[in-house]
Design a protein that fits this description.
With about 250 residues, the protein is an alpha/beta fold. Helix content is about 35%, strand content about 25%. The strands form 2 sheets. It has a 6-stranded mixed beta sheet with strand order 5-6-7-3-8-9, sandwiched between helices. Strands 2-1-4 form a 3-stranded antiparallel beta sheet. Helix 4 (about 140-155) packs parallel to helix 5 (about 170-185). The protein starts with a strand and ends with a helix. About 40% of the residues are buried. The model has no long low-confidence stretch (mean pLDDT about 90). It binds adenosine-5'-diphosphate (ADP).
Length: about 250
């Protein structure tokens, strides 16, 4: 059954007095793969970070699965931008994925065989089972992103947020990731992806959030991905944007 997975009302966020997100209101139903698009600096990352409560809001109400974020944290997975992660941190691929199982572990329990098997299963889903003993810093961009998706899968969350998951990622990793995200949505999960490359937007997403500080458009991808709507956010003739992969 469909339910409101993410509800955002009148969200305002600013940095040192400069507004980055202004008055955004929207409801996302479960089972949707939603892209957040908009020009550079439009507030896309700020929007998801503030929805997740990682940065403070000036104003606004956010509910995920009908509750404030801190009550449903275990059900929310977040994959930050790759360049915001310390890849020199000495941790193996398997241990990185096992971290995803921690929210479900009881206090003071370390992961056991069951969790390790589950982490390996998640690595298999992203095609990275042969890399389980590698250090994460030794992987390519695409492989790192697959591992971070495996960690999110290991968490068994219901709502997933990914910030620019395809930047610096090879085509085959991108295809694998998109396939898994679509599968998650078919199973009723909700997935929100910040994505700047418009050329794939129609192929990848069910719905689009078009941001330029304010909410310029929101809805089914075919309704938002229209020249007049897109132009309002990008202020560039839309015909060129596709080719440029803005
Ligand atoms: P996008 O993800 O769409 O590129 P961001 O959410 O990163 O946009 O940024 C929105 C605006 O907020 C930009 O003008 C950016 O410079 C500013 N901004 C982002 N993060 C910070 C920060 N930590 N401190 C100050 N300004 C910031």
């Amino acid at each position: 059954m469909k339910q409101t997975a993410i509800s955002v009302q009148d969200l305002y966020v600013s940095y040192f007095g400069t507004e980055a997100v202004s008055g955004v209101t929207l409801d996302i139903e479960s089972g949707n793969l939603v892209g957040i698009v908009g020009p550079n600096g439009a507030g896309k990352s700020t929007f998801i970070k503030s929805v997740l409560g990682l940065i403070p809001r000036d104003k606004g109400l956010v509910n995920i699965l009908g509750a404030p974020v801190k009550e449903v944290q275990k059900q929310i997975a977040y994959v930050p931008q790759r360049n915001h992660i310390d890849w020199d941190f000495p941790i193996t691929v398997l241990d990185a994925v096992l971290l995803g199982t921690y929210p479900k572990l009881k206090w003071f329990r370390r992961p056991r065989k069951k969790e390790k098997q589950w982490a390996m299963e998640c690595l298999r889903r992203v095609g990275m089972e042969d890399f389980s003993r590698r250090q994460i810093g030794e992987l390519s961009g695409g492989q790192q992103q697959r591992v971070f998706l495996a960690r999110a899968l290991a968490q068994e969350a219901d709502v997933f947020f990914l910030d620019e998951p395809f930047v610096g990622v090879d085509v085959s990793s991108e295809e694998t990731i998109v396939k898994i995200l679509k599968e998650l949505c078919r199973h009723g999960k909700t997935v929100v992806v910040v994505h700047h490359d418009l050329s794939k937007a129609q192929e990848y997403f069910d719905q689009l959030i078009l941001l330029n500080k304010e909410l310029v458009g929101f809805g089914a991808v075919q309704d938002v991905f229209q020249p007049d709507v897109m132009q309002r956010a990008y202020q560039t003739p839309f015909a060129f944007m596709n080719e440029m992969g803005v």
